[in-house]
Amino acid sequence: MRTSAPARVGQYTALFAYLVFLAFPFLWLVSTAFKPPRELGSLHPTWIPKDPTLANFRQAFDEQPLLHAALNSLVAALTAAVIAVLIATPMAYVVARRRTRLAKAVTGWVVVSQAFPFVLVIIPLFLVLKNLRMINSVPGLVLVYVVWALPFALWMLAGYVRAVPPELEEAAAIDGAGRVRTLVSVTAPLLAPGIVATGLFAFITAWNEFFFALVLLKTPEKQTLPVVLTHFIGAEGVADLGPLAAAAFLATLPSLVVFAIIQRRITGGMLTGAVKS
């Protein structure tokens, strides 16, 4: 079916408006990060700084330990993403291939668990980590991130497993491959785009997470980057806008860079999988 010219114009207009809506906060953040103090307090703000400066970045690094906090966030996010994917992949295979009541119950629990608010689970979670002596520790935070990312990772990977033709696994079984060998040698390579996408989701979620890190980490040396960003806001709620914008801009770069690097592999792997099937 051919789309009429007015319909195409409407579609492109809606798409452009949506892109502007998504890009506006980030572009304004970048603009603010390079503005000197006199432009930040101007009654007539402009998109492009008239006198761009790097002083906000230098001040941000001088006031707060951004590099150390970024390292803590990187360790926690990367470790949680890897562990979540390693656990979710075999679980997703079982849930997708075995159509039992238990598998359906697991899928239902995954959907329901995503509706739990953070505030509802933070007190019992705090008590559990306290008994395990993992309060105020990066491993404890990693454990929380893994548990929180696992349901969605399981649900996401199960969909990718269902897209893999069962005939490939049946052929491997005829050749004498067991379940583990089939998963590792046949199914897992075809799941590579899904595994990468799931790992990216878990990484970005953990990298940007703030509430759990704020509650569980008390020592400044162990705090993650989102928590350290709040230190640019004074006791009276007045933000040091320039350094805050500069630090927030730097905090968003890892997520953008990671996605830019692997997005072609995700798309290419999905298309390759479609051709193979």
Tell me what you see in this structure.
InterPro entries: BP-dep_ABC_trans_perm, MetI-like, MetI-like_sf. Residues 70-262 form the ABC transmembrane type-1 domain. It is found in: Cell membrane. This is Carbohydrate ABC transporter permease. The protein is an all-alpha fold and 277 residues long. The protein has 13 helices and no strands. It has helices at 5-33, 37-40, 55-63, 66-97, 101-113, 118-131, 138-163, 166-174, 179-190, 192-208, 211-216, 225-229, 241-276. Helix 4 packs across helix 10 (192-208), helix 7 (138-163) runs antiparallel to helix 10 and helix 10 (192-208) runs antiparallel to helix 13 (241-276).
Assembly category: single chain
Class from helix and strand fractions: mainly alpha
Helix content: over 70%
Order of helices and strands: HHHHHHHHHHHHH
- Which of globular, elongated, flat, extended, rod-shaped describes the shape? globular
Poorly predicted ranges (pLDDT <50, ≥5 residues)?
268-277
Count of DSSP H/I helices: 13
